[in-house]
Design brief:
The protein starts with a helix and ends with a helix. The longest helix has about 30 residues. The protein contains eight helices and no strands. The chain is globular, with a radius of gyration of 17 Å. The model has no long low-confidence stretch (mean pLDDT about 85). With about 200 residues, it is an all-alpha fold.
């Protein structure tokens, strides 16, 4: 029963995180509908980056913890979206921004190291993938974005368990994987519809 209650709390916190990912996407839609973006060129170029930074911050401010001193959230979704749909320098801007916020939030050093390994690795991979991603059809974009968020989660999993010996239940990891992948697919679909 205790395990089931814990899983319900995790699901609730992850769904709240997912709302923080959807909010900037709806703001993006609103900016385009009101044609605000087209009036301000600088805003048009940086809007995706700015909205992803807002989403990353909100996800990191409202994480869930299993009492292990580590914070869990869905920041990887706006991070990947921002790099795939942002400008050339967005990858490094988002990486530095996310690591700075993570450092300022504190917590165990283990969590900071896991974030550093995961998101630095993903920045390199995403920088290589981005140029091909923009030319793909919607179906292929969904596959690629799903695989990228799965890869990101696997890097976190192996870094946490093999290098830092973080012990979490298989149920927790499974639920986290499923919600993260579904969240990424829905976010990709929404941003493609908006575009």
């Amino acid at each position: 029963k205790r395990s089931g209650a814990k899983m319900a709390i995790i699901t609730k916190d992850l769904l709240i995180n997912f709302l923080f990912i959807l909010l900037p996407l709806f703001l993006l839609q609103m900016f385009y509908l009101l044609k605000i973006v087209y009036r301000i060129d600088r805003l048009k170029d940086n809007l995706v980056t700015i909205l992803c930074m807002v989403s990353i911050t909100l996800c990191m401010l409202f994480p869930f913890s299993l009492g292990d001193g580590l914070f869990w959230d869905l920041r990887r979704i706006p991070f990947i979206i921002g790099i795939l749909y942002g400008r050339k320098n967005t990858a490094f801007v988002l990486l530095l921004f996310m690591l700075l916020i993570r450092f300022l939030l504190g917590g165990q050093n283990t969590g900071i190291y896991i974030s550093f390994v995961t998101f630095t690795s993903m920045t390199i991979i995403l920088s290589l993938v981005t140029r091909y991603y923009v030319k793909l059809s919607l179906g292929k974009k969904l596959w690629v974005s799903g695989l990228l968020v799965l890869l990101s989660t696997l890097i976190t999993y192996f870094t946490a368990t093999l290098i830092f010996s973080v012990r979490l239940t298989l149920d927790m990891w499974r639920e986290y994987f499923i919600i993260t992948i579904l969240g990424m697919l829905l976010a990709t679909l929404l941003i493609e519809v908006i575009r």
